[in-house]
Amino acid sequence: MSLNSIFQYFVPKDKKFFPLFEQAGSNLIDMAKLLKESVHTSDLQLRKNNSKLLEDLEHKGDNLTHQIHLELGKNFITPFDREDIHALASSLDDVADFIHGASNRMELYKVTEPSEAMKEISSLILEATEHVAKALFELKDLKNIRNITDSCVRINSVENKADYIFDKAVAELFEYEKDAINLIKNKEVLSAMEDATDKCEDVANVLESILVKNA
Amino acid sequence: MSLNSIFQYFVPKDKKFFPLFEQAGSNLIDMAKLLKESVHTSDLQLRKNNSKLLEDLEHKGDNLTHQIHLELGKNFITPFDREDIHALASSLDDVADFIHGASNRMELYKVTEPSEAMKEISSLILEATEHVAKALFELKDLKNIRNITDSCVRINSVENKADYIFDKAVAELFEYEKDAINLIKNKEVLSAMEDATDKCEDVANVLESILVKNA
Amino acid sequence: MSLNSIFQYFVPKDKKFFPLFEQAGSNLIDMAKLLKESVHTSDLQLRKNNSKLLEDLEHKGDNLTHQIHLELGKNFITPFDREDIHALASSLDDVADFIHGASNRMELYKVTEPSEAMKEISSLILEATEHVAKALFELKDLKNIRNITDSCVRINSVENKADYIFDKAVAELFEYEKDAINLIKNKEVLSAMEDATDKCEDVANVLESILVKNA
């Protein structure tokens, strides 16, 4: 039983960290929707606009992380262990970085025709961020442990699917893509996308360790 | 002197964490043996089987990490600082990921004829995991500090050798390999292997910081 | 208010950690100067010498990190939270690794004519390390919070510039460089350089979180 578990009976319901985590969760969904749209459209102007919007949302995410760190500095008592709040905020930040990174690479490398694998993984990223946001929303009420665990299991399963699609797509690139520069472009965009689902899994791992400590 | 050092005089010998760390250590040796065999054989079927076995052992490693995290959640008193147990488990997990990753890349990229450098580094990975396992085995009895320090020194020396072979091999690829796609394949397999020895060095760093605190 | 903030009124001025951090800061400036010189010169022998010197300075940095860890093990009371000292030391170590890595890749890949983008980013790395060193120097006297914040803001701005130059240079490589192997070489050297400024930003993030806690 941690110091925080002892304190939590004395402490009024946290009004600082949970709203910030909820906002970070919805922000990830918004980002994943834009990326998915960009990968599925053939409208280059829409894609350009989305890329700009994604940059703005990434800054918004940075600000949320920053605010969580500021609150950590100001509050002696936190709803769960400081190191876990820190780890959770960082892992959410990483998800945002890679979603933005995938869109950015598509723009920079002029990947004008996203592959089937990119389309599939972009849908999986959206799915994963929806589970992440749901788990973050439930976090404020640790009575719904079952729901959080459920979301974590689903995130892991989405990550496994993305992993499988990524491996298959890269193997095919090495088999059929004879233009090395195209191979690099495609591999790096896919890789940023797959990393985004890995980072969702990191979020799930942090959430699970929070559950175990506070159950 | 940490809180744990004070507590350790009152606490019965830990029966939870040490056996898990020992299992994680032997698991790494098993993985390194399979990778070394795959890199040294020309029997493609054996290599395919080993790749499958490596995937299973990586899952086994994941489970051990998971169990260590569960124990961390359940136990208020731990044989050494919680953050160090966490860091040690994560660093062992990283070693497993890169050993599996090296084998996986060989399969996916169809690197049918592993280079001399790959053979040498795969042998060094096995050597490094043997020192890691030895140090983890000694960890339960902090009287053998000398032995643990010794293993850490050896891990560092193995990592230096792998680093040198990697740098030389990559320089040669850029000098002589004119096929860019082959260059990428070889560089990425080598790089996953070299990362595996880097991660063994991370394990050694965690072990050394545990020694310093508890000496 | 952290335990350390309470203790600091009782504790004589720290004589152990601050000097080590100051040395780590000047070491980074020395490294950045050598890298900048290497990227700007056409004297291949000078570049070779600098590469050797950079390796020595990287080892010097490793030793400083190691000493900081040893002090952490020996001292129960630290000038600010142990986890922050650890994070600060690691982030400084990462900056050194990438500065050395950039120089090493130039040597190994025989990038004989560094691009304009490399020259610009190498100058930005020097600028960033100067702000890092300045902030570390001020750290011992937390009265100068304003100066430290100032340095952090400047580090962030330098990182943004490097990011922009990197993205533009990589886009141009994919647009104009038809030789895939040259593309890889240039991209990887640029990428190590850009990572060095990212790592300076990580240092700034750690410094800011220390300020918030101890203000």
TrEMBL record, chains A, B, C:
Pfam families the UniProt entry points to: PhoU_div
Superkingdom classification of source: Bacteria
Family: Belongs to the UPF0111 family.
Protein name, entry field: DUF47 family protein
Source organism (scientific name): Sphingobacterium humi
